[in-house]
Specification:
The complex is a heterodimer of chains A (305) and B (334). With 305 residues, chain A is mainly α. Helix content of chain A is 71%, strand content 3%. In chain A, a hairpin with a 2-residue loop joins strand 1 and strand 2. The longest helix of chain A is centred in the N-terminal third of the chain and has 35 residues. Chain B has 334 residues and is mainly alpha-helical. In chain B, 74% of the residues lie in helices and 1% in strands. Chain B is built from 15 helices and 2 strands. Classes of the chains: A mainly alpha (305), B mainly alpha (334). The interface between A and B is large, with 43 and 47 residues.
Amino acid sequence: MEDLFIQISKAVVAGLMMGLVFGLVALGLTIIFGVMDIVNFAHGEFLMIGMYAGLLTATLLRVDPLVGLPVAAVVGILLGLVCYYSLVRFLLRGPIVAQLFGTFGLMLFLRNVALMVMGAEPQSLHHGILVGKSFVVGPGMVIELTKLAAGVLSLAAFAGTWWLLNRTKIGKGLTATALDGQAARYMGIPTERMNAFAWALGGATVSVAGALLVNFWPVDPNVGLLFTMIAFTTVALGGFGSIPGAALAGLIVGMMINIAPMWDACAVYLEMEVGWLHQFKYSFVYLAFFLIMVFRPRGLFGWKH
Amino acid sequence: MEALKSAFDFSDFPRTDIWVARAVAAGLLVFPLLPHSSFAMATMIQFLMFSVYGMGWNTIGGYGGQVDLGKAQYVGIGAYTTAVMMIRWDVPFWFSLPIGMGLAVCWSFIIGYPLFRLKGHYFAIATIATSLILKDVFESWSFIGGARGLKIPLKGEMPNFLYIQFREDYYYYYIMLGFFFIGLFYLNWFRHSRIGFQLRSIKDNEDVAKSLGIDSHWSKIKAYAVATAFVAAVGSFHACYNFNIEPEDVMSLDLSVLIALMAMLGGAGSLFGPIIGAAVLVPMKNYLGAWFGARAGLVGLDLIIYATIIMVIAAFEPRGIWGLITRLRERRSD
């Protein structure tokens, strides 16, 4: 019984820490989606580029991975702006189909550029003040410092974004554009620039999430799709356009991914088959997306649609 | 009889189009007689397969305007039904084909009912989600081979028409060509049919369509089932043609998107659009892949070019190549 409790709380803690990073991954998507109703299929690829940015800063300059965070943020902002001005601006004029395929083309493009430049081998970080360190909180409970730091820094990034959107003039302009673009334009808000700002902000948050993630998750050019789907689910669960929603939904998705270890703990206790659920780790996420969309399209905190 | 007449009625196309279409059809019929490499043959078979996939997608995605990015799950159902039945119970292709299509259509009804409560982006992403769930299930289901997939055993004597196993590719080519023409004439009927008009009115304005008494939910589900049957049939063929299927191959998101992409590139919602799209993309993808893939350091360059074309088309001419042709024509007639 004791053992069961420890196993489950271990899975819960792991889920919560992963969940905060997932929330940060989804934050960028929810901002972009909330402001202009466009689905960004390349979101996972933005994350992948953020991961490489963090990795390359740390390995090429021989500095601590934490220095990679601002670098990744700058890369993300540039990436968001370039994508907006060279592609998304044109896609917005077309029908939904064009938007879906345009961003899908972007995803394919970024993925294969990464493949050409970085190669297909998964790469991971091996040095840094956080890597490999962990501390023990209780019997059998070990918390890796990289994951804890990622969780805490994600929270900080959330707070920063929330402040930016709710307490600054530019953030209020963004919210106004999201609520009603035309009315915002009449009020003298430069909506075109607000769209670009949304992409820059979205790119920055997801790149930072990538730079945090690379501390404990190997990066390869194909890592994006999984995170795109996770981000879609998180956004759907939290409600399109809701920032606290994204944070909370990230936690829930983090838990979902840890259903398999939780089940294992229970299965040992109940003397049932162990391990078979691991293959469906991500199916829970996809299924959750489907069920949420069908039964509660607004999500938990959605204010749009 | 009326339906058959309408299937062969192309009179609403300009005369030049009909002549071009006839020339292309004749070219397709005699292609195996012309000198060609085996690579060209494989490319042609793939072109036919993707045309039929695209035609299927076009019913719901083009005429109905519902962007479906989960077609690969039905390719998987068709392919796996044929392969499993052939391996386990020795059932010939021509019997397992309708069963596979039936199973796929049943599954499409089951998930189509909740799916079509969604619209636009939400529908598109939800179709991806269902497809990925089914792929996970197939990958861990040991009865159908799991992630390693299935290998169809050879039947000994060739050519074997019942199990469609041939040494020469042109048999496969003609079988696929048969599917292609059946699909084309069916679609020609479909676009004049009641459901075709219902779908187009739903695409233009769903609220108006509803107010005219169209049960839009049910029409979409029906069109989705038609699309599914097309895709599952080609999936069954794929299993026999490749002898080897695995979930990563027949059920990946890339395949789903490729299907939708070809239809969109050619021109969604037009009869010849998916065929034009497949005729452009399949050879391009194959030949670029063969040229660049062989050279070290250039892996992925073919897909970069491919992605660039997708982005340019999506940004500047969302109606695809067919839209471009129509626009040029309108300009000339002005």
